[in-house]
Specification:
- By secondary structure, the protein is α+β, with helices and mostly antiparallel strands.
- Helix content is about 55%, strand content about 10%.
- The strands form 3 sheets. The protein has a 4-stranded antiparallel β-sheet, with helices on both faces.
- Strand 1 and strand 2 form a beta hairpin.
- Helix 3 crosses helix 4, helix 3 crosses helix 14 and helix 4 packs across helix 12.
Length: about 325
Amino acid sequence: MQKRMGALVLALCLTLSGCALEKEEKNASLLGRAAKLGEELALVTVDGREVPAWRYLYWLAFTCDQVREKYKDSGLALDWEAPVPGGTLAEYAKDQALANTALYATVENWAERYGCALSETERAALAKTWEEQAAAHGGEEAYLKELSDLGLDRLRAEELAEVGMLYAKLYDLCLTEGSELSGLLGTADSLTVDRILISAGEDREAAREKAAEVFSRLNGAEDPEAAFPALAAEGDDTAGPRSLLPGDGTLPQALEEAAKALEEGQYSGILESEEGFSILRRLASEGEALAGEAFDRLLQDAAEGALVRTAPAYDALDAAAFDKALAELREKGE
C-alpha cells in the first residue's frame, strides 16, 4: 500500500478466559485454525473501517492457492522464501492479500460515502443466486462443504457477494449524469488505439527493416483503414484495439504521448521503444468502456492510497506456515 501505516495496537480481547479461547478456536473455520487467530479480530483497518481477520485470511488463502497452482503448472518447487521484487514470495502473498482486503473495504467505504445500499429486492436476488449456485454444486450441503475449504460459510460468502453488488451499484452511479461519482471520472483524456508491433527480439536491425516493410505496405494499401488491423494481427501485438488512460502503463510513455497527438483515424509513423517498433492508429473512443476502466482505476487508486493500519497479529503472521497448516487441515477434511 502506498500509505500503509505501521502496526497499530488494537483491542485483542485479551480478557477472554482460556476456556473461551479454546471454544472459539474449535468453532473457527479452517482460516482461523491455520493462522491461530480469532477470526473476528480487527486485523486490519482501512480508512477507519475495521476488517475482521477472516476476510484478510480468506484473501491470503486465495493468493497462496494461486501461487501454489502456478508453481505446480510450471513444474517448479514452491519456496515461500524465494526472493521476488520487494521481498520474499511469502511477503508478496501477504501484501497481495492486504491489497485485496483494502480494495473490498474501499468499496464499502465508498458505498457509505455515496449513499449506496442494497435494497430488499437486491438482497432477494442474492438469496436466489445462492440457491442457484447451491443447486449447480449438487445441493446446499455439498456447496457448503466446498465453501468450508475456503474458510467460508453462507453468511460470509453472501457478505463478499454483497460487496460485489455494491461495486455494481457504484459503477451505475458513476454513469449517472450529474452524480458526484460521474464528476470524478474525468475520462476526457482517454483514448482508444490499435497497434502494429514488430518486436526487437535478438536482432533489432532486422526488426527495424521489417517495420519499414510493414509501414510501406500500409502506405501502399488501397484501403489503409482496412489494412491496419490485418497488419496488426500479423505483428507481435495481437490484442487488438484497446482503451488507454493517462499513465496506466498499457503503452510506454513515449508511445502514449504519440497516440495523444493523433487525430481519430490517423496512424503514426514508426515509433521505436525498448520492446521494438510500433505503428499506432487512433480510433474513436468507446465512452462507456472507458468509463468502466476509469472507474476501476479510480477505485484502485483509492484503495492503494488508503490509510491502512494493521494489528500486531498481522505482522506476526507467517504466510508460509499458514499455507502449510491450511493444506494439512484441508487434507484431514477438518
